Amino acid sequence: MEEPENTSEQPVMWKRYFLHISYDGTNYHGWQRQLNSHSVQEEIESALRKLLRQEKVITVGCGRTDTGVHARDFYLHFNAEKPITDKAEILFKLNLMLPKDIGLFGLWQVADLTHARFNANERSYEYHIHQRRDPFIERFSTFYPWPLDIERMNEAAAMLLPYKDFAAFCKSGGGQKTTLCDLHEARWERHDYKLVFHIRANRFLRNMVRAVVGTLLEVGRGKMDLAEFKAIIEGGKRTQAGQTAPAQGLHLTRIVYPADKIQPID
User: Fold this and answer.
1) Tens digits of per-residue pLDDT, 67-83?
2) Active site residue: 66, 134, 149, 182, which one?
3) Which residue range(s) make up the domain with 197?
């Protein structure tokens, strides 16, 4: 008996694309798609499905941000069933379709195995604090009116750099496979009544930056000395560190990839 003729469709030739975006996280339960919660990922995937006329679009972000956290520099990848020939037009239409608190400013094709999360080798965050009322920055900065010793806070921040294990600043139940990070920068700056904390590393644990900030604020208020801060790092217990700082002050500001990893291929 003859074999039946193969009438199946030809396999889809997927193409992988990177999107470069930013968003105000105030109205979202973070980047990550969640059941019964509004997320940035959900908004972008919905727009891509409609615009590309593609039944399913799954995006993968360079990381995840918590509820209310902002991202000035964020990358994601997705696969398209058909090549996107006019990327400028697609980008223009996506920006019209999406809410005004999400902005897209780069779209390009990359090699098939390029990964937005796993190929990133450095991430930077800022945490913003204002010490007098300012209605124009309330969405993006935390009001903290108590006096702070920024020099002492910088002494404590510098103590973080030699360490690798940051379990003391990791949210319990965060699903982390490891609590090890390579920290490259941790410092405070003052600009009049505003303070900005800069932190840079190869990776971050869940809630890590906000836990570090909350603990450093206790140092700045004189509620914790440097020896106690060091003991917290070495103790590795989240219950010993300070409170988690509010979400609205946190901004993901920079994602770095190796030069050869996200080059356009078309």
Assistant:
1) 999 999 999 999 999 99
2) 66
3) 122-254
